[in-house]
Design goal:
The protein is an alpha/beta fold. The chain has three domains: 184 residues, Rossmann fold, CATH 3.40.50; 146 residues, no CATH class; 163 residues, Jelly Rolls. It is built from eleven helices and 17 strands. The strands form two sheets. It has an eleven-stranded mixed β-sheet, sandwiched between helices. A six-stranded antiparallel β-sheet has the order 12-17-13-16-14-15. The relative contact order is 0.10.
Length: 525
């Protein structure tokens, strides 16, 4: 009874903060090949839905939890390390599930159907569990949330899902080992891994980003003693390869970064064959594996332990994770308790923005944008004016840089065009404008209200998909709508700049087909 009392107190503490949708069925399923029980849950970060409310609620997060089992109906009780896996862009939930409808059985069935994408289709730990190739040296709990926000996983989502999982598992006799909680992700999810660690370097015991859509500061990894194993295609231009090489080589200002050596169990040649590089003086804690035969792929084989690029003596990345502990790295335990009220939510489109699941046609959305321009010509939004007027310096100190922010995007555009202007840094952006999968909605457009008239001299944007078409033009409906920049988006994961000469307060961005556009930066006077 003495041992159960602290556990009961912890359960009560976590349950107060856990906000699990009780109508979403737990639906336990036994996965015999790995001897694990899978559960499904839906968490909330924000306020609960109310009948008739159709506002966006991106804080609704469905997710799977895989727990070790003793048989087809019972979990194995005890204290276990945990992994949280963040999927790529192709496994995001349907945008209709961001809407706060009066929920019925069909709503929950739709959530469950879409959630299935994060398992086998994603090619992550869930796929390895299904095939019996998830074989860590110790039993582990695996958590796989589904992004509903079209652009990645916020810190809020990651913390909320871990906290709610801890609460749910405690009711089954399972405690998460806060000294051994690990974060991994691929592509878009890998970018979210990088972003989370950059903001919270002491939380996770180890991180494993694969083909990450974003970079990380090499000195931060060393200064914070972060256990890091990154994977990327070895050929130049593949997502993350240059970032990973810089992580290993770093520079002379970073501690423990000037000596580099090869795992003696596996020959390493960066150009031409697979390799794993280690950084001294902590070779088990900082490493990068290059996969030159892969383009933007390879994660399924990394997660199931069959990739040829894995060191011959260390094919199981989960066993490497298990050797990493917060206590060994001088870090506090992972903060499992979490109060989202004190955090900042993932940036998203306001409720006035038309969802990609809306039945409104593109022409209706366009007219909404135009009317917004017309009204804002006479009455400028104070938030836009205050943020735009006089803002001619950037993070890089350029005198002609125009600072942009999400409040400058006029209402009426499909999806979340706020992602075009929410980061404004020189590094690879982690969010992108997503309007929907259906080709029938394209082209789509958004308009930036700069708050006053500028003479634009340069337009810079980031291509996040390497396909499609984007056009820039004057967004003032009283002026010529001729295109000033047209780009076929063939420079994957790179910034592109165009010199322009346009005097306007409004800039229209129109994208076609499968164009996936990230950050836009402007220069002018």
């Amino acid at each position: 009874m003495k041992k159960l009392f602290p556990l009961l107190l912890l359960t009560m503490s976590l349950s107060v903060q856990a906000v699990i949708d009780p109508r979403f069925p737990e639906a336990p399923s036994f996965l015999s090949k790995s001897g694990m029980l899978r559960f499904q849950y839906m968490s909330h970060e924000g306020s609960e839905c109310t009948p008739g409310n159709n506002a966006r609620l991106i804080s609704r997060v469905p997710y799977y939890v895989y727990a070790p089992a003793t048989n087809s109906t019972q979990v194995q009780t005890g204290k276990f390390p945990a992994i949280i896996f963040l999927h790529g862009m192709g496994e995001q939930g349907s945008s209709v599930l961001n809407m706060c409808y009066t929920r019925d059985d069909s709503y929950y069935a739709g959530v469950a159907t879409n959630l299935n994408k994060v398992e086998n289709q994603a090619g992550g730990p869930g796929a390895a569990i299904l095939t019996g190739q998830f074989k860590p040296a110790e039993n582990m709990v695996v958590i796989i949330p589904q992004s509903m926000s079209k652009g990645g996983f916020s810190t809020d989502i990651i913390r909320r899902v871990i906290a709610d999982t801890a609460a749910q598992m405690l009711t089954k006799g399972i405690e998460l080992d806060a000294d051994r909680i690990y974060l991994t992700g691929l592509s878009m999810g890998g970018g979210s891994v990088m972003k989370y660690v950059s903001e919270n370097p002491t939380h996770f015991s180890a991180v494993v980003p694969i083909e990450a859509a974003g970079g990380i500061d090499a000195c931060l990894l060393r200064n914070q003693q972060i256990s890091f194993w990154g994977f990327a295609g070895g050929a130049s231009g593949n997502m993350g390869s240059a970032n990973l090489l810089s992580v290993i080589n770093a520079n002379s200002s970073c501690p423990d970064s000037v000596i580099e050596y090869t795992n003696p169990a596996y020959a390493c040649v960066y150009n031409g064959k697979s390799c794993t590089r280690f950084s001294a003086l902590r070779p088990t804690n900082l490493r990068a594996t290059f996969m030159p035969t892969n383009g933007h792929s390879g994660w399924r084989e990394v997660y199931n332990g069959t990739h040829s690029a894995l060191p011959t003596t260390e094919k199981n990345i989960y066993n490497w994770m298990l050797t990493q502990k917060n206590s060994d790295q001088g870090k506090p335990l992972f903060p499992v308790n979490y109060n989202p009220a004190s955090s900042t939510s993932f940036s998203s489109a306001p409720s006035s923005v038309v969802s990609s699941s809306s039945t409104a046609s593109n022409s209706v959305a366009s007219s909404s944008v135009i009317s917004s321009v017309a009204s804002s010509r006479s009455v400028a939004s104070s938030s836009v004016v205050s943020s735009a007027i006089g803002s001619t310096s950037s993070v890089n100190g350029g005198a002609n840089d125009i600072l942009l922010n999400p409040s400058m995007i006029l209402p009426g555009a499909l999806g979340n065009p706020q992602a075009l202007v929410d980061e404004q840094t020189a590094t690879a952006p982690t969010t992108y404008w997503f309007a929907g999968w259906s080709t029938s909605i394209y082209p789509v457009e958004a308009i930036i209200d700069l708050g006053r008239e500028y003479t634009l001299t340069e337009i810079t944007f980031y291509d996040a998909n390497g396909t499609g078409l984007v056009e820039f033009s004057d967004g003032d409906p009283t002026r010529s709508q001729s295109v000033i920049v047209s780009d076929g988006l063939d420079r994957y994961l790179k910034f592109t700049s165009y010199p322009v000469n346009l005097q306007t307060r409004y800039l229209r961005i129109k994208k076609y087909n499968a164009a996936t556009l990230s950050e836009i930066k402007l220069k002018g006077h």
